[in-house]
């Protein structure tokens, strides 16, 4: 889905595009963001040959001590997929500094250099700290949100005993656990002069609970036996 929407192109990673993709994915909100700072600074100090017990467990034949400092900052936005509204914007940053010894000549085995793992590097730690800061801000905001519900209408597409198939699915807002009302158009009142319909009375036939949902349809179970027909109207009960 993201490939089809060309979402990897940064010029399209805006609130409107994010909202469209969020609706395709069937989510209420989507998070987008950008890195606002990405800096790595290194400084080196030459060291002579001999034991370097503070930094290593071996001996180097000359080399240098490299100090690395990384700074990362990012800003993310949470977008309402129904309206395109930016619900909140959160920024976070992280810093880390690491030191290592690099040999310029031969060295004995057992040198305890800084881990080669990215997660353990200065840059890796800075990124993780910035991401954790952003995640904490989003979690704090999310705790204040109430569930976003969408009112929807549709039709009964199939009836089998007390099981109904509806022509509304995840993309229109249907969720497992929703209660829907089944209605049928009844008597109409016409204007005696123009013969235009003035009012249509709608008869409530039954209620049902949605048990399964896919993108385009839903399965619902009637709460009680009722003469439901294909084509009857469906609406979510608030």
What does this structure look like?
- The chain has helices at residues 15-25, 122-142, and strands at residues 29-47, 50-51, 59-60, 63-80, 86-103, 153-160, 163-166, 179-190, 197-213, 218-222, 233-236.
- It is mainly beta and 238 residues long.
- The model is unreliable at 49-61 and 105-115 (pLDDT under 50).
- The longest helix has 21 residues, at 122-142.
- The protein has two domains: 10-142, no CATH class; 153-236, Thrombin, subunit H (Beta Barrel), CATH 2.40.10.410.
- The strands form three sheets. Strands 6-7-10-9-8-11 form a six-stranded antiparallel β-barrel. Strands 1-4-5 form a three-stranded antiparallel β-sheet. Strands 2-3 form a two-stranded antiparallel sheet.
- Helices cover 13% and strands 46% of the residues.
Task: Briefly say what this structure is.
The chain is mostly beta strands. 13% of the residues lie in helices and 46% in strands. The chain starts with 14 loop residues before the first helix and ends with a strand.
């Amino acid at each position: 889905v993201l490939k089809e929407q060309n979402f990897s192109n940064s010029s399209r990673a805006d609130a409107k595009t994010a909202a469209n993709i969020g609706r395709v994915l069937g989510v209420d909100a989507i998070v987008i963001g950008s890195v606002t700072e990405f800096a790595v600074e290194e400084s080196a100090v030459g060291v002579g040959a001999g034991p370097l017990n503070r930094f290593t467990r071996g001996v180097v034949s000359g080399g240098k001590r490299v100090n690395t400092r990384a700074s990362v900052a990012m800003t993310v936005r949470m977008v309402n997929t129904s309206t395109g509204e930016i619900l909140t914007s959160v920024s976070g940053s992280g810093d880390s500094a690491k030191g290592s010894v690099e040999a310029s000549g031969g060295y004995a085995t057992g040198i305890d250099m800084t881990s080669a793992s990215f997660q353990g590097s200065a840059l890796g730690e800075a990124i993780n700290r910035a991401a954790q800061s952003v995640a904490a801000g989003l979690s704090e905001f999310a705790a204040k949100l109430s569930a976003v519900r969408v009112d929807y209408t549709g039709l009964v597409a199939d009836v089998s005993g007390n099981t109904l198939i509806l022509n509304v699915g995840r993309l229109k807002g249907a969720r497992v656990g929703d209660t829907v009302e089944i209605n049928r158009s009844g008597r109409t009142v016409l204007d005696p002069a123009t013969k235009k319909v003035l009012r249509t009375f709608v008869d409530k036939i039954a209620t049902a609970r949605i048990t399964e949902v896919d993108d385009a349809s839903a399965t619902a179970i009637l709460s009680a036996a009722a003469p439901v027909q294909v084509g009857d109207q469906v609406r979510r009960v608030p």
